[in-house]
Design a protein that fits this description.
The protein is mostly helical and 359 residues long. 51% of the residues lie in helices and 8% in strands. α7 crosses α8. The longest helix is centred in the last third of the chain and has 30 residues. It is globular and about 70 Å long. The protein starts with 8 loop residues before the first strand and ends in a 5-residue tail after the last helix. It is an enzyme of class 6 (ligase).
């Protein structure tokens, strides 16, 4: 941030430590984070949310490794640790402290309306006759269908709200599937301010990401995800050039002559166009017009080349950072000092408001 520039926005966003990101993470989230660094009036806090990762049992060594890989990837993608505060969530204790305070004033009914835990629960009970409908789950979280639900999965939206409110963020980049969580954060900001007669927390505004979802290279009706057991369904930022070419070459298209962008009737072709357009910072419809006379094979070649041009320098920089773990750790520790300073200032005021120990 340039010296003397007045800060008018404070942005907070987090990403789970899933190791090396896949292309959907890069185009849907990380690339947007990088572009926000161009706004001189904006203060940026980007967190690798390792506490959120605990909602699913994880091997400790794997979690640490994947947290480090995510940090390396973010920096390699263009997150500047001098411009943005990049930190591991668990290194800042105030996240957990505020989580408890907010959880203590959050009505269960608010959490019961959240759709993501119900989606996870349906996944767990897909083969069970008593999985229950959305209505049944909403009415009774203690039903037989909900017995496998972990408390962390049910309450993590409160931790997400704590992440945002702890830094008194004014803006939060969100995808369409996170809008409900941001609404909860706004509700809790109002609820806390009213309960403790303060104006401490601003109402954070959502910043919907411009890039739509990147879909699977095996099934373009599903979102690209690292949880998909088929590695051919996704491109990761560590993939070699050959791997990228092979995966895109095998992506489904259709038998329609010519190229057009229509996600409903031509999902495979449209997904490839979306990827190409996002890598080239252009509109997918414009890309479709430029390629309208091409064959599917030619389009795939162009998409693969665009992805390789974007991924190759990121891949190289990730390798350099992972080969120097002491340097990478020093970057994170410096940034975590900055994050703790801001968070602790907020926490002291919060503690004062609710009657806890202040130091």
């Amino acid at each position: 941030m340039s010296a003397g520039v007045k800060v008018t926005k404070r942005v907070f966003s987090g990403i789970q430590p899933t190791g090396v990101p896949q292309l959907g993470n890069y185009l849907g989230t990380i690339k947007n984070w990088v572009s926000l660094q161009q706004e001189n009036d904006t203060e940026l806090f980007y967190s690798i949310v390792d506490l959120h990762a605990l909602t699913v049992p994880r091997d400790p060594k794997q979690l640490r490794r994947e947290t480090t890989e995510m940090a390396a990837a973010l920096i390699a993608c263009g997150i500047d640790p001098k411009r943005s505060v990049l930190f591991r969530q668990s290194a800042v204790p105030a996240h957990s402290q505020l989580h408890w305070v907010l959880g203590s004033i959050t009505p269960v009914g608010w959490l019961n309306r959240m759709t993501q835990w119900k989606s996870k629960l349906h996944q767990q009970n897909a083969e069970s006759e008593d999985a229950g409908s959305d209505e049944e789950l909403q009415l009774n979280v203690h039903s037989s269908a909900a017995q496998g639900l972990l408390t962390g999965l049910f309450t993590y939206p409160v931790l997400m709200a704590a992440d945002i409110l702890l830094y008194r963020a004014t803006h939060v980049p969100v995808g369409e599937d996170q809008v409900q969580h941001l609404e909860l954060a706004r509700d809790l900001a109002v609820h806390f301010n009213k309960t403790f007669k303060t104006k401490m927390f601003p109402l954070p505004t959502g910043m919907l990401t411009a890039t739509k979802r990147v879909m699977s290279l095996k099934d373009p009706l599903r979102k690209m995800s690292k949880s998909d057991p088929n590695e051919q369904s996704r491109i990761t930022l560590s993939d070699t050039d050959d791997q990228i070419v092979k995966k895109i070459k095998k992506a489904p298209t259709d038998a329609i002559t010519g190229i057009s962008f229509d996600p409903k009737t031509r999902p495979g072709v449209s997904n490839l166009l979306s990827i190409y357009a996002a890598m080239k910072d252009m509109d997918a419809q414009v890309a479709a017009v430029e390629m309208r006379e091409m064959s599917n094979a030619h389009v795939k070649e162009m998409v693969a080349q665009a992805v390789i041009e974007g991924v190759a320098p990121i891949r190289q920089r990730m390798r350099e950072l992972m080969d120097d773990p002491a340097y990478l750790d020093s970057i994170l520790r410096d940034n975590e000092d900055r994050a703790r300073e801001t968070a602790e200032n907020s926490w002291q005021e919060i503690a004062q408001r609710v009657g806890l120990v202040c130091r």
